[in-house]
Design goal:
about 130 residues, about 40% helix, single chain
């Protein structure tokens, strides 16, 4: 009597075998996820980022090197570059492109040039 199921209980499933994996259902879920609107926006964003990276890479190949020009080293803030090149002071050429946060994105800039007159002797006595 104890082993007999009650009439209001559903029949028990055999728990000795695990449920088989439904490969087709998994494929459908994966395709639904990958073709959904969120993933489409992510694909578009990925394409935009890749195109922008290629664009900056190509621009850096063709951009002028400014490392040998006076006052064009890494210590010059980009705002000063923009001011000088938009107002055309000191016969500076106009900027033919959009302004980026740093000139070093495309243009090769060198370290600051140290002159011998600005460097103090280490011993404190000059001429030795």
């Amino acid at each position: 009597m104890i082993d007999e199921p009650r009439p209001d209980e559903p029949p028990r499933a055999d728990t000795s075998e695990p449920a088989p994996f439904d490969k087709e259902a998994a494929r459908r879920r994966y395709r639904k996820t990958m073709r959904g609107p969120f993933m489409r926006w992510m694909y578009i964003l990925l394409a935009i980022v890749m195109l922008a990276a290629w664009g900056l890479g190509i621009a850096s190949v063709f951009a002028r090197d400014v490392e040998r020009l006076a006052d064009h080293d890494l210590t010059v803030p980009p705002s000063r570059c923009v001011t000088c090149h938009t107002q055309r002071t000191d016969n500076a050429p106009a900027i033919p492109h959009l302004v980026l946060p740093s000139c070093g994105f495309c243009h090769r800039q060198g370290p600051p040039v140290r002159t011998t007159s600005s460097v103090a002797p280490a011993s404190g006595v000059a001429g030795r």
